[in-house]
Amino acid sequence: MSVFTTVTHQALATWLADYDVGTLTDLRGIASGIENTNYFASTTQGQFVLTLFEKLSASELPFYLNLMAHLAQHGVPSARPIANRTGAYLGTLHQKPAALVARLSGADVSHPSSPQCAAVGAALAHLHLAGHSYPATMPNPRAHTWWHTVLPNLLPFLSTADAATLRAEIQYQDGVQQQHLPQGAIHADLFRDNVLLEGDQVAGIIDFYFACTGAWLYDVAIAVNDWCIDTNGALDPARYQAFITSYHSERPFIASEYLAWPALLRAAALRFWVSRLYDLHLPRAGALTHAKDPGHFANILQLRRDYCPPLPQ
Q1: How far apart, in whole angstroms, are the C-alpha atoms of residue 32 and residue 87?
Q2: For residue 269, which of 154, 234, 252, 297 sits 20 to 30 Å off, Cα-Cα?
Q3: Read out DSSP for 41-79?
Q4: Integer CA distances (angstroms), 155 to 142, 159, 174, 291, 304, in order
Q5: Does some domain include residue 144?
Q6: Residues 134, 253 share a domain
Q7: Could you count the other beta carbons within 10 Å of the beta carbon of residue 51?
Q8: Cβ(243)–Cβ(118) under 8 Å?
Q9: For 312, which DSSP code?
Q10: Pick from 54, 78, 102: which residue ends a domain?
């Protein structure tokens, strides 16, 4: 989440006249993240997050907003979009698609404990099961096709060794099939900063704008590669076990997932290495932007290439 488009207090106050949320009292830009413009907006009736979509089109956004509403209606503590007076979740502000979402309680954590990892594992399983009844579908926008598309643009910025690793891993992943694995709506970006905790309980799941239809196990791998690692990027045994055990207790793994697990851990690391390389070297202009270190996931990928622990039985 970041600020690319400046929104004034007056402009938002005028826009909010189409919503039954009271009068705007405070507006603050959110500096973290890299994809959209985001603000905290407080009104006389509550607290909200305003998002202006910088890359996604108005035709793409109903998948995400309706998924968030679907999950909230099915007991998942997901960010809930607010409908305007015509019943629409999506509006237009400063010529950009825009949405208002209820702000959730809780806070993200930098150093999660094993009980917190267990809570997130269970919450992700609940999300997958609730999302299974969501009828709309969306291909993963940052998978094989995208990796091949951006590869030529990234190679000039890479060392010889990194370029060789990137080529080799993309080639390896081209041979990995996920279609036979249990599928459904996935968050696809369930990092620590996208989960709000109150103690050891999940209070909210936010930032669904990379959500898509895909293998549930891939979503687990993305989360594990962030929630369950030590400072060097290796998997922490206690947190890893807690996360996987808790997820499995809600949505048991099947035999094909045990076999696919090492490859999907690598795919999850590759996806964010490529994304961070792209955002660092080919950024868009923004008033407040935050590009994350691609070296972090280059290291995680190398660790997973060297050794992928089995999915705990």
Answers
A1: 30
A2: 252
A3: EEETTEEEEEEE-SSS-TTTHHHHHHHHHHHHHTT--B-
A4: 17, 8, 18, 18, 22
A5: yes
A6: yes
A7: 28
A8: yes
A9: P
A10: 102
Sign, Cα dihedral of 95, 145, 190, 182: positive
Q: What is the pLDDT of residues 209-233, one digit of tens each?
A: 999 999 999 999 999 999 999 999 9
Looking at residue 32, its amino acid is S
Number of domains in the chain: 2
Q: Which range marks the domain in which residue 93 is found? A: 9-102
> Which tokens sit at 66?
């309706």
- Assess whether 71 and 118 both reside in one domain: no
Is residue 3 domain-resident?
no
Instruction: Count CB-CB contacts under 10 A for residue 239.
Output: 23
pLDDT digits (tens, 9 = 90+) for 43-98: 999 999 999 999 899 999 999 999 999 999 999 999 999 999 999 999 999 999 99
The stretches of 132-236 forming alpha helices (DSSP H) are 144-154, 160-174, 216-227
Q: How many CB atoms lie under 10 A from the CB of residue 111?
A: 7
pLDDT tens per residue across span 114-130: 999 999 999 999 999 99
Q: What is the sign of the dihedral through the CA atoms of 137, 209, 276 and 259?
A: negative
Contact between 12 and 93 (Cβ < 8 Å) = yes
Strand-pairing partners, residue 107, are 197
SS3 28: strand
